Amino acid sequence: MWKQAIEEALHKTKLNIERFGDQFPHVSENDTYQLNPNTEWTDGFWSGILWLSYQYSGDPAFKAAAERTVASFKQRIENNVALEHHDIGFLYSLSSKAQWIIERDEAAKQLTIQAADVLMKRWRPKGQYIQAWGPEGHPDNGGRIIIDCLLNLPLLYWASDVTGDPKYREVAEIHADLSRRYLVRGDDSSYHTFYFDQETGEPLRGGTHQGYSDGSTWTRGQSWGIYGFALSYRYTKNPLYLETAKRLARYFFERLPEDNVVYWDFNAPVNAETKRDSSASAIASAGALEILEHLAADDPDRAFLEEGIQKSMTGLIKSYTSPKDAQGFIERGSYSVRGGAAPDDYMIWGDYYFLEALVRLEKGIHGYWYE
Questions:
Q1: 117 assigned binding-site residue
Q2: Who contacts 98 (Cβ-Cβ below 8 Å, separation ≥6)?
Q3: What's the CA gap between 41 and 221, in Å, rounded?
Q4: What is the pTM assigned to this prediction?
Q5: DSSP output for 55-97
Q6: Which of 205, 228, 232, 335 is 20 to 30 A removed from 178 (C-alpha atoms)?
Q7: Residue 46 known to bind ligand
Q8: Is 325 a catalytic residue?
Q9: DSSP secondary structure letter of residue 270
Q10: Who contacts 30 (Cβ-Cβ below 8 Å, separation ≥6)?
């Protein structure tokens, strides 16, 4: 089942190389991806799909297309295009760092270190956190962290490993600790976002930007936490991160609906109109696969996680994969239900994590969050 799903995804990717040209897919409208000239926070996912496709198949067409995206990311950083946010890890881990991991290309390595330096500009020493969005001192976003940032931290851990400079790792660990303390609730659910006083770092309140309500659990946010804390454990071996990843995963998989693909928020009222988020199920599956890498054979959580992955991935394949020549891999992702932005469409990150989970299940190929 995994192999067939991979082959279908690679077939669509080959078609998409021609369809997209030098543009980058973001989310879809009427089953067609909206393209941009490498200006969105999501553009690394297309690069990551191309690298995974090449690593799995060995087809040089995927390699050539992936290398072209890295050239675009080099221009983006040189021209400082749309980089004033924390999603630098999403952009460069899956593009230039992927090229370094696969090809040991020195220029790709140096570009990725440059990207880590850009991310470090988001560090706010007064508050001791990485600011998610906007310029320093912004009245709404100046003191805000969001759970998504956990997937950007691997860029900093990696930068310390390859440069020998501890500053990147120190910032990543401080931010991971803060996220664990304030974004993860006592019942193992999560806030999407948390606010701090910009001058003192005093915690103010939890909230949401994309979830159903401030106190609800946005499913994609929960999945970012699953994968993000598991990756922080890989780099630091801090057992608290692995424990937290397992807790978040248990909360997620215990709440799967009948078809095993989650709704957009665990607290949203469920009716015939309630939106799904297939991308959250894909991310959670990929994150749970990472957790399994660190569990002993007799760990009591192993069987539960394996069952959750099996249910989620089977549910995606059976009920949510797109037609043969479609642009996206999985249907019914949601970008921003609250904001009315692509609430029931293809998401390029959903496609990426779906393929990442599949190739890990089939061939043991992981993504490009670590070497």
A1: no
A2: 47, 48, 51, 66, 368
A3: 16
A4: 0.98
A5: HHH--HHHHHHHHHHHHHHHHHHHTT-S--BSTHHHHHHTTHH
A6: 335
A7: no
A8: no
A9: P
A10: none
CA dihedral 75, 78, 79, 81 (to 10 degrees): 80
Are 196 and 145 in contact by the 8 Å Cβ rule? The answer is yes
Is 325 labeled as ligand-binding? no
Domain ranges in the chain?
2-363
Interstrand relation of 24-29 and 32-36 (parallel, antiparallel or unpaired): antiparallel
How do residues 227-269 score in pLDDT, each as one tens digit?
999 999 999 999 999 999 999 999 999 999 999 999 999 999 9
| Cα(58)–Cα(101) distance, integer angstroms | 15
- The catalytically annotated residue of 148, 188, 277, 301 is 148
Rounded to the nearest 5 degrees, what angle is found at the Cα of 364, between the Cα atoms of 359 and 366?
70
- Count other Cβ atoms within 10 Å, centred on residue 34: 16
146 burial class (0-12, 13-18, 19+ CB within 10 angstroms)? buried
Class of the CATH domain delimited by 2-363: mainly alpha
Q: Is 148 a catalytic residue?
A: yes
Among 87, 265, 301, 345, which one carries the catalytic annotation?
Answer: 87
Amino acid at 363: K
- Token pair of 292, please? 């399994």
Q: Which tokens belong to 17?
A: 């190389």
| 93 marked as binding residue | no
8 Å CB contact between 346 and 353: no
Please state whether 282 falls in left (phi above 0), alpha (psi between -120 and 50) or beta: alpha
What pLDDT, in 10s, does the model give residues 100-117?
Answer: 999 999 999 999 999 999
Closest by Cα among 73, 149, 56, 137 to 367: 56
Nearest Cα to 305, choosing from 241, 247, 218?
247
Question: C-alpha angle with apex 241: 240 to 247, nearest 5 degrees?
Answer: 90
Q: Is 87 annotated to bind ligand? A: yes
Q: Is residue 221 part of an annotated ligand binding site?
A: no
Angle CA 29–149–216, to nearest 5: 70
User: Is 76 among the annotated ligand-binding positions?
Assistant: no
